[in-house]
């Protein structure tokens, strides 16, 4: 049963469907993902599986990242070995660049640490949700961020055309006169936020190249990491 998979957005292209129509799709390099950890209800209080994608060079990894996926020699490990005990099982792979947890529900498939998850789990899936980080556009004004129309470009408006206008409450609003209400749309950071695009049609699953072709656009720039999961 398909639960989810991690991948990298490659970019957009076009393919032909069975009727000869052009379909705009986003190519996602998905998997293989290694199962790094399995959360259980008895030990952690919830059920989940932790997946890792894209190997990270050991010289660029800190000790905690290397110890998360492989057994490292330490004073604690030697003490446990002398007592006849063994540490927690490890996946035995390289440190991973992109790590995410997926909640497990009753009826989901059983996962084992070190197991590889590939795109073939999506062969019977028709629609997916894609989670990514949107493109960061820095600090933007209200016209770019929210699509404000701006002020009139006529006489009397001097170098104030892209301003947001009045932001305080009206004087008749007793108790809140002159105060800015929470949630007011104003200038600020635009983008670089977690976004989920739901119910995207899965057009094609390329098992040979490990690709998923999803209809439409997904958040993030080319090369960014995404999470693909079955629709809820």
What does this 3D model show about the protein?
There is one protein chain. The protein has about 230 residues and is mainly β. It folds into two domains: about 5-140 and about 195-230, Translation factors (Elongation Factor Tu (Ef-tu), domain 3), CATH 2.40.30.10; about 140-190, no CATH class. Helices cover about 10% and strands about 35% of the residues. The protein has four helices and twelve strands. It has helices spanning about 40-45, 65-70, 75-80, 140-145, and strands at about 5-15, 20-30, 35-40, 50-55, 95-105, 115, 125-135, 140, 190, 195-205, 210-215, 225-230. A six-stranded antiparallel beta barrel has the order 1-2-11-10-7-12. A hairpin with a 5-residue loop joins strand 1 and strand 2 (about 20-30). The longest helix has 8 residues, at about 75-80. The chain is extended and about 85 Å long. The two termini are about 15 Å apart.
| Rg computed from alpha carbons, rounded to a whole number of angstroms | 25 Å
Order of helices and strands: EEEHEHHEEEEHEEEE
CATH fold label of the largest domain: Elongation Factor Tu (Ef-tu), domain 3
How many distinct folded domains?
2
Mean pLDDT equals 88
Number of strands: 12
CATH class of the largest domain: Mainly Beta
In short:
This protein has helices at 41-44, 63-69, 75-82, 142-146, and strands spanning 4-16, 22-30, 33-39, 48-55, 96-103, 116-117, 127-133, 139-140, 188-189, 194-206, 211-215, 225-230.
Keywords:
4-stranded antiparallel β-sheet, 4 helices, mainly beta, 12 strands, 6-stranded antiparallel β-barrel, extended, 232 residues, Elongation Factor Tu (Ef-tu), domain 3, 2 domains, 10% helix
């Amino acid at each position: 049963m398909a639960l989810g998979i991690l991948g990298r957005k490659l970019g957009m292209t076009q393919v032909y469907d069975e009727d000869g129509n052009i379909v705009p799709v986003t190519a996602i390099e998905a998997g293989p993902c290694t199962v790094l950890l399995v959360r259980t209800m008895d030990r952690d209080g919830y059920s989940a599986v932790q997946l890792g994608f894209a190997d990270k060079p050991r010289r660029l990894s800190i000790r905690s990242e290397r110890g998360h996926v492989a057994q490292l020699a330490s004073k604690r490990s030697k003490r446990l070995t002398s007592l006849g005990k063994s540490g927690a099982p490890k996946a035995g792979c390289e440190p991973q660049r992109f790590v995410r947890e997926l909640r497990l529900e009753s009826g989901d498939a059983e996962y084992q640490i070190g197991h590889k998850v590939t795109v073939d789990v999506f062969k019977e899936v028709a629609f997916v949700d894609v989670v990514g980080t949107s493109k960061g556009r820095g600090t933007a004004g209200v016209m770019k961020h929210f699509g404000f129309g701006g002020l009139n470009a006529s006489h009397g408006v001097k170098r104030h055309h892209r301003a947001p206008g009045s932001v305080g409450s009206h004087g008749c609003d007793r108790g809140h006169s002159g105060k800015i209400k929470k949630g007011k749309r104003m200038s600020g950071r635009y983008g670089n936020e977690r976004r989920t695009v739901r119910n995207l049609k899965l057009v094609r699953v390329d098992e040979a190249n490990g690709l998923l072709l999803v209809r439409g656009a997904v958040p993030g720039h080319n090369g960014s990491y995404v999470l693909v999961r079955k629709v809820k």
